[in-house]
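Note to self: keep these together.
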Amino acid sequence: MAVLTEEQTMLRDMARDWASNESPVTAWRKIRNANDATGYDPAAYATMAEMGWTGVIIPEAHGGSDFGWLSLGLVIEELGKTMAASPIAASAAAASAILLGGSEAQQAAYLPRIASGELVATLAVDEGPRHDPTAINASVTDGKLSGTKAFVAEGDSAGLFVVAATDGLYLVEAGEGVTVDRRHLVDFRSHAQVTFDGAPADRLASGKDNLLDAVLDRAALLAAAEMLGMAGQAFDTTLAYLKQRVQFGQILATFQALQHRMANLFSEIEQMRSAVESGLAAIDTVGKAGGDTRQAVSLAKAKANEVGHLMSRELIQLHGGIGMTDEYDAGFYLKRMRVLEQMWGNTAYHRERFARLSGF
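Structure:
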């Protein structure tokens, strides 16, 4: 478990209090029922921006706080606990591309607007059903980008797309040459298919090797942080249920077999926390110094996928049949967890990547 500074502890506690009081799961249920393409409450996102969460990883010179990726991960984790939907993670991942590979003019044009919450940005990378950053066909000719990107997170509300093309990353604003089609996934969040047809594109002036890898690493870690929050909340919810549910004349929590299952889940989540926080801390230290963080990221995402899948499955099983009903919140966690498992690399992808980077 990471050792937090006093400021990071205060940030985490503020996010926890706000999410619990102002954006509980009941708030997400209303968003789900509204069935709007954006998949989040713009008013709630504006409040998050006012609290500075949209600018945590953006330098002070561009309106952010430059508080680091571990700090942002703490916020994302707390929001994940209550299913508080927002484009914070997508915008931060897109902002990282501009930070790492953008010119001074590009940074000045977009980072302040992302930090203030005025602009929602997102990554547009994958073109098929599975995460594969090597299978990129989108191309640019004479400053015009053409291609189709599948399952673009927050694509329905994004004003700026960081698009992976055959020769690098490009900034494309929503509007001319950009068509967004809503896609319905089980988590009811925004996952649009975005088609670029001669859209004006501005290439990131990257001075960093493997820019796309570095950006995807940051996106994967934020997904893992959200999964960590969800897994922790799923555990707490399940434990509370077992302590009050009576079966065969006894409280379920008194059955030793269930105690063993919960003990195993607790230890798995703690390992997940260690991996995710270590990955985020590596971005703040090793990554900031230009070092290689790919192994730490793949370890974190693989472990998050594995434990998130286990915990969400046990959440349903230990609640029994009632856990599958819409009356209970358990299904929300299961569905969102399954989507996050696939985003930016599933378990098999990151295990293979970790092994390859380790020389196997």
